[in-house]
Design brief:
The complex is a heterodimer of chains A (about 90) and B (about 525). Chain A is mostly beta strands and about 90 residues long. Chain A has no helices and 5 strands. Classes of the chains: A mainly beta (about 90), B alpha/beta (about 525).
Chain lengths: ~90, ~525
């Protein structure tokens, strides 16, 4: 169903997934190497809610790890309020 | 006869702000109508969810406030009955939604915008559709004065209505200086844009090293052109040099710096996204910070935007046209409509990236505001009221715009739909391989074909060669090797096929220094 926009935030608590690096937005003004949160159902771009859009070095510590997050899904982005390594 | 119709949704406003908050908005709208009247503009508020009002227009009231289809049908009924010179959408997308056009360049994970959200269809006569190709001939002057998504008190919207009521046109001299900000990587393109608009690049700032604060007062210029990175639900734009993405501008850095009457054209991805900052408990969008401080107009994108390297195209062009039209004295609404038309007219055929650009750029602000005062060559007899004369001239301008929009609708070839898989001729395969090589892509690079609609068929033996391609092929990929150790950058390639031969191509990518 279409909502008012893709960016209507949806809250998730204790969402689990693996953190990985990957290319994003090839050829566009958003192109970069991004950090992804890969859950069993979806693949989201992972951002700290109050962190920068690109190049957040704080996220590097989670790459390759299974994590648990609280935060919001906005479109295809997960805006994390809490990230905890669980593996 | 009403010159300006303000459409909104009473139920949605009452749900957000309560009866008292809605009454305050109503009072502010009355003040805006009074101010418009003094300028010779007859304004009227119309609630799209009001059954009696919509019945009088032979339309159907909106039952589901966030339904793009219902809102499009209701606004079409407004135009059919009243044909206003200006249509102002009052409210963010949780009051009156953006339209949900399919993103023709949707290729997850590289372009993961399923929809190219925007207000373009409201500016077009064609009925509701998700196909952007149906909206290449806009004819209506439309802008949106947004409140805050998810807000529960109306002070933000009341402030914007006060700005619209109290606006004043200024001398062109007040708009000759500018704030120009670009990611360092894109300075070649931004220089071209600024030269085209202002005739110089004296005020161009590059990030890095510029930003996020501008203590020298650079933000106080009234014309802003910004070509940086942006992201969804983010109160910041970023610069770029190599792998470094420093913050170039933030909502906080704009606070107290934007002066009344500012007009901005912003190419950044998501630069005009009206995200829900209240639920997310983050700073509001930069675009809404501009408007809060008295900016008259802001043109930006709701989603991922595109532009070619070392040149101008797509987002660059629509932003340039908008500011140039304003400098010539157009209202911000007419400047945006003309920018859309000029972008389509100057584009031979609307490929999937062109269509996304057209769909995603939105005008925020009261469309009736004229920031730049210009003198007219046409004299008006003393016996004629100036308001009546202006209404006549405006009607002439609208007639021309309608003609131009209708012409584009009837003639502009578009490529928004994927073509069925078909065997490619060896010649076409080889040509695509060569284009892929030129873009730095590998021999295995997959292309997706898009059928071109609206191409005029060549008639008879005497007909000259067809000028319109039969298909477009697009590919998005990352070059295998980065030259000189630079960052590897992906490219989006568009190749035109005419009668089984590749006759042209364009390569979009991040600008390199």
């Amino acid at each position: 169903m279409t909502t008012m926009s893709a960016t209507t935030p949806q809250r998730f608590n204790a969402l689990q997934g693996r953190v990985a690096l990957g290319a994003y937005g090839k050829g566009s003004k958003s192109e970069r190497e991004a950090v992804f949160l890969e859950t069993s159902a979806e693949r989201y771009i992972l951002r700290r809610k109050t962190g920068p859009v690109f190049g957040d070095t704080e996220l590097e510590q989670y790459v390759g790890h299974q994590v648990e997050c609280d935060g919001f899904v906005v479109g295809t982005t997960f805006l994390a309020e809490r990230i905890q390594i669980v593996d | 006869m009403d010159d300006k119709i303000i459409v909104t949704n009473r139920g949605a406003l009452v749900r957000k702000y309560g009866s008292k908050g809605h009454a305050a908005i109503r009072k502010a709208l009355t003040a805006l109508a009074a101010a418009d009247k003094k300028r010779g503009i007859k304004s009227r508020v119309l609630y799209l969810d009001d059954q009696a009002s919509m019945k009088k227009l032979r339309g159907t009231a909106v039952m589901n406030a966030v339904s793009p289809r219902e809102n499009k049908a209701a606004i079409d009924a407004v135009f059919k009955s009243l044909n206003p010179d200006y249509l102002m959408i009052l409210g963010a997308p949780d009051v009156v939604p953006h339209q949900d056009l399919d993103n023709p360049a949707y290729t997850p994970p590289d372009d993961d915008d399923r929809y190219a959200w925007g207000d373009l269809p409201y500016a077009c006569d064609a009925p509701y559709s998700r196909d952007a190709a149906r909206f290449v001939g806009p004819t209506r002057v439309v802008g949106r004065l947004p409140d805050m998504v998810g807000a529960s008190e109306p002070s933000y919207l009341l402030g914007l209505l006060k700005t619209a009521a109290g606006y004043k046109s200024r001398s062109p001299d007040d708009y000759t200086t500018y704030f120009g900000l670009s990611a360092d990587e894109w300075k070649g393109s931004t220089r071209l844009s600024l030269n085209n608009i202002f005739g110089n690049v004296n005020k161009l700032l590059l990030a890095p090293t510029a930003g996020p604060k501008y203590p020298g007062g650079q933000l106080r210029a009234r014309m802003h052109f910004i070509n940086c990175h942006g992201g969804p639900a983010s109160p910041e734009f970023l610069g770029q040099k190599g792998k470094s993405y420093p913050t170039a501008l933030t909502t906080q850095a704009t606070t107290g710096q934007i002066v009344e009457g500012t007009v901005a054209a912003v190419e950044c991805c998501y630069g005009a996204e009206l995200y829900d900052a209240i639920t997310l408990a983050i700073d509001p969008p930069i675009c809404q910070s501009y408007l809060r401080q008295g900016a008259y107009g802001y043109l930006g994108s709701t989603t991922i935007a595109y532009g070619p390297a070392d040149d101008n195209g797509a987002a660059d062009l629509i932003c340039q046209h908008f500011l140039l039209n304003l400098l010539e004295g157009a209202s911000i609404g007419r400047a945006a409509l003309m920018a859309r038309q000029q972008f389509v007219a100057d584009t031979g055929q609307m490929d999937p990236f062109d269509l996304k650009t057209l769909a995603q750029f939105c005008l925020l602000g009261d469309p009736g505001v004229h920031p730049v005062a210009t003198s007219s060559a046409a004299g008006v007899p003393k016996s004629t009221a100036s308001g009546e004369a202006e209404r006549f001239f405006r009607a002439e301008r609208r007639a021309k715009l309608r003609f131009a929009g209708d012409f584009l609708t009837q003639t502009k070839p578009t490529a928004s739909k994927r073509a069925p898989k078909a065997r490619l001729s060896p010649t076409t395969k080889t040509a695509l391989l060569n284009v892929a090589k030129l873009a730095g892509l590998g021999a295995q690079q997959e292309f997706t074909a898009f059928a071109v609609k609206g191409a005029a068929a060549s008639k008879g033996r005497a007909a000259k060669a067809a000028a319109v391609p039969s298909r477009y092929h697009i590919a998005i990929g990352t070059p295998g090797k980065a030259a000189n150790g630079n960052v590897q950058r992906g490219v989006a390639v568009v190749a035109k096929e005419l009668d089984g031969r590749i006759v042209g191509y364009r390569i979009y990518h991040q600008r390199s220094t």
